[in-house]
Design a protein that fits this description.
214 residues, mainly alpha, Ferritin, globular, disordered C terminus
């Protein structure tokens, strides 16, 4: 079950068109999911080094990085079982669309970063929930099992933002909620990714007609 807090935090549901595209691209779905888990662990570790003086944040990120790497191992194990080979994929534009609005100066930079990460985790949770009923039993069960941890990550990042903010964060949360909504509903993405909008279909260029054929 998708927790009400995640549903209330996000300003839109994943479009049905994205779900249909995900079902048509099972290998890309798992590949990008694995890459997202690895990037999430890397982001947590990077923040640990950048904000070493923040004790509560250090402890939270350490636990989170371990859990994200465990998820990476689980996804790649599923891929191997299904005859899929792990490789890098080009990232979606989703995270960049959010990150480009993060404040440049501290302490606002940290607060915005934590809010953006909360949105990424919340959207991941929502997408697992929307996808699970349409997947085979093994993968559906696995995605359902991730709901609790992803919602916990969302709540944790938001809690850290509230802890370190010097003022209420509701205004910044609302700002990024609208940016995130636009990123999910965009029709400008050309490739399917775990956090992409609904990819627009590729149009094959019309063949050139030679003068001799006219």
């Amino acid at each position: 079950m998708l927790i009400p807090e995640v549903e209330a935090f996000l300003q839109c549901q994943t479009p049905q068109g994205w779900i249909e595209c995900a079902l048509d691209h099972p290998e890309e779905l798992l590949l990008d999911h694995a890459n997202c888990e690895k990037k999430a662990a890397g982001t947590a570790l990077s923040l640990m080094f950048r904000y070493a003086e923040r004790e509560e944040l250090q402890q939270y990120l350490s636990r989170l990085a371990r859990e994200e790497l465990r998820h990476f191992e689980q996804v790649t194990a599923l891929m191997k079982k299904r005859g899929m080979r792990y490789r890098q994929l080009s990232p979606s534009h989703y995270a960049r669309r959010l990150q480009q609005h993060i404040a440049a100066q501290e302490p606002d930079k940290l607060i915005d970063t934590l809010i953006v990460l909360a949105f990424i985790e919340a959207r991941s949770c929502e997408r697992f929930y929307r996808l699970a009923p349409h997947l085979d039993e093994e993968l559906g069960r696995f995605y359902t099992s991730l709901l609790k941890s992803e919602s916990r990550h969302f709540e944790g990042y938001l809690r850290m933002a509230e802890l370190y903010a010097k003022k209420p964060i509701a205004e910044r949360v609302a700002f990024f909620a609208e940016i995130e909504r636009q990123a999910i509903l965009t029709e400008d993405d050309t490739e399917f990714r775990f956090h992409s909008g609904v990819p627009k279909p590729q149009v094959d260029p019309k063949p050139q007609t030679s003068q001799a054929a006219r």
